[in-house]
Amino acid sequence: MSLSQPTSRRRESAPDSTAPRTGNAAPNAKRKPRYTTDAARWAAVIARDKAADGRFYYAVRTTGVYCRPSCGARLALRENVSFHDSREAAEHAGFRPCKRCKPDKAGLAAEHAARIAAACRRIESADAMPSLEMLASEAGLSTYHFHRLFKSVTGLTPRAYANARRGERVRSTLPIASSVTEALYDAGFNSNGRFYAAAGDMLGMKPAVFRDGGANEVIRFAVAQCALGALLVAATPRGLCAISLGDDPDALVREFQDRFPQAQLIGADAKFERWVAQVIGFVETPRIGLGLPLDVRGTAFQQRVWQALRDIPPGQTASYSDVAERIGSPRSVRAVAMACAANTLAVAIPCHRVVRQNGDVSGYRWGVAKKRALLAREASEGARTPGASTGDVNA
Ligand SMILES: [Zn+2]
């Protein structure tokens, strides 16, 4: 893969004030727009200039195909070449995509996603968190651009991603490790203190409690009725850990008990009743936002998927492959679907907004009828109320 500096910033999200600002913060800003004349474009084609990819396409009259500027195919004669601003324009002019440089396949966005995916793999395989400078240089980007791109693709900063990933390693190692210390060294922590400081965030409980299968963990829960049927709401001291929908309240409780066999389950108190009321209001009208902390427990991959789901506004839907693209793992469509199915916080993590590519409402943990009802509600609410965030996540 080329490590050239991308010259387009159009795919990036809103400015991120947390991104570090370095001396070469905006290398692209110094460059004036190029490739505006045929002469400049032809020069880019001769140079097979990767930086020109996505800025224009060139087509060859004698072969009937169009290419990215960097295509490795034999250089055509200038007199047979025409330039097009977009692939649509080239195709409209009757040219078909080159089989070699595949100009019809996603370009810059896919390349960015691939670079970030490579950085994710790099973080996962490293014993210690690689520096931001090192990750950026390996991706061929400035630290500033890399940090922004990483966050827009994964929903997490590189450090948060590394922490989530280490948490995943600890979670998988703790139950089989001979000691907590062994598990934490295996996960790349080099001091007990740092591990215990991070453990609550990663595991949702103290390490020793986690090893015991969640024994003695206190979880409050209540079952209520809402417009969609029965609703079970449960919370640890850290935040909501379950929101389930169903038709049979007893079945909801049984399923919940099966999920937390070792925990100490207790009924609602006055404060928790207020939370339940808030959840009911939110489930019936997601647009109002939740505003309660969530105790999100999942692998780093699941957390990336769930973060992407929370970015889908009420009233809108995305396909499983859209979500896979957005988290930088375009080939993980099946894993995305599994992460959606593993979600235990109905509506708060809006997995109901993910539908099949053709728009079909597919499976839903709490029943396809409930998914249809939620989507219909959000569609009809659409024009009435302004958008609101879906709540704080304490993940
Ligand atoms: Zn080509």
UniProtKB/TrEMBL annotation:
<keyword id="KW-0479">Metal-binding</keyword>
<keyword id="KW-0489">Methyltransferase</keyword>
<dbReference type="GO" id="GO:0003908">
    <property type="term" value="F:methylated-DNA-[protein]-cysteine S-methyltransferase activity"/>
</dbReference>
<dbReference type="GO" id="GO:0006307">
    <property type="term" value="P:DNA alkylation repair"/>
</dbReference>
<dbReference type="InterPro" id="IPR036631">
    <property type="entry name" value="MGMT_N_sf"/>
</dbReference>
<dbReference type="InterPro" id="IPR018060">
    <property type="entry name" value="HTH_AraC"/>
</dbReference>
<dbReference type="InterPro" id="IPR016221">
    <property type="entry name" value="Bifunct_regulatory_prot_Ada"/>
</dbReference>
<dbReference type="InterPro" id="IPR008332">
    <property type="entry name" value="MethylG_MeTrfase_N"/>
</dbReference>
<keyword id="KW-0805">Transcription regulation</keyword>
<dbReference type="InterPro" id="IPR004026">
    <property type="entry name" value="Ada_DNA_repair_Zn-bd"/>
</dbReference>
<dbReference type="InterPro" id="IPR001497">
    <property type="entry name" value="MethylDNA_cys_MeTrfase_AS"/>
</dbReference>
<keyword id="KW-0227">DNA damage</keyword>
<keyword id="KW-0010">Activator</keyword>
<dbReference type="GO" id="GO:0032259">
    <property type="term" value="P:methylation"/>
</dbReference>
<feature type="active site" description="Nucleophile; methyl group acceptor from methylphosphotriester">
    <location>
        <position position="67"/>
    </location>
</feature>
<dbReference type="InterPro" id="IPR009057">
    <property type="entry name" value="Homeodomain-like_sf"/>
</dbReference>
<dbReference type="InterPro" id="IPR035451">
    <property type="entry name" value="Ada-like_dom_sf"/>
</dbReference>
<dbReference type="Pfam" id="PF12833">
    <property type="entry name" value="HTH_18"/>
</dbReference>
<dbReference type="InterPro" id="IPR036217">
    <property type="entry name" value="MethylDNA_cys_MeTrfase_DNAb"/>
</dbReference>
<protein>
    <recommendedName>
        <fullName>methylated-DNA--[protein]-cysteine S-methyltransferase</fullName>
        <ecNumber>2.1.1.63</ecNumber>
    </recommendedName>
</protein>
<feature type="binding site">
    <location>
        <position position="67"/>
    </location>
    <ligand>
        <name>Zn(2+)</name>
    </ligand>
</feature>
<dbReference type="GO" id="GO:0043565">
    <property type="term" value="F:sequence-specific DNA binding"/>
</dbReference>
<feature type="binding site">
    <location>
        <position position="98"/>
    </location>
    <ligand>
        <name>Zn(2+)</name>
    </ligand>
</feature>
<feature type="binding site">
    <location>
        <position position="71"/>
    </location>
    <ligand>
        <name>Zn(2+)</name>
    </ligand>
</feature>
<keyword id="KW-0804">Transcription</keyword>
<keyword id="KW-0808">Transferase</keyword>
<dbReference type="Pfam" id="PF02870">
    <property type="entry name" value="Methyltransf_1N"/>
</dbReference>
<dbReference type="Pfam" id="PF01035">
    <property type="entry name" value="DNA_binding_1"/>
</dbReference>
<comment type="similarity">
    <text>Belongs to the MGMT family.</text>
</comment>
<feature type="binding site">
    <location>
        <position position="101"/>
    </location>
    <ligand>
        <name>Zn(2+)</name>
    </ligand>
</feature>
<keyword id="KW-0862">Zinc</keyword>
<dbReference type="Pfam" id="PF02805">
    <property type="entry name" value="Ada_Zn_binding"/>
</dbReference>
<dbReference type="InterPro" id="IPR036388">
    <property type="entry name" value="WH-like_DNA-bd_sf"/>
</dbReference>
<feature type="region of interest" description="Disordered">
    <location>
        <begin position="1"/>
        <end position="35"/>
    </location>
</feature>
<keyword id="KW-0238">DNA-binding</keyword>
<dbReference type="GO" id="GO:0003700">
    <property type="term" value="F:DNA-binding transcription factor activity"/>
</dbReference>
<dbReference type="GO" id="GO:0008270">
    <property type="term" value="F:zinc ion binding"/>
</dbReference>
<feature type="active site" description="Nucleophile; methyl group acceptor from either O6-methylguanine or O4-methylthymine">
    <location>
        <position position="351"/>
    </location>
</feature>
<keyword id="KW-0234">DNA repair</keyword>
<feature type="domain" description="HTH araC/xylS-type">
    <location>
        <begin position="131"/>
        <end position="213"/>
    </location>
</feature>
<dbReference type="InterPro" id="IPR014048">
    <property type="entry name" value="MethylDNA_cys_MeTrfase_DNA-bd"/>
</dbReference>
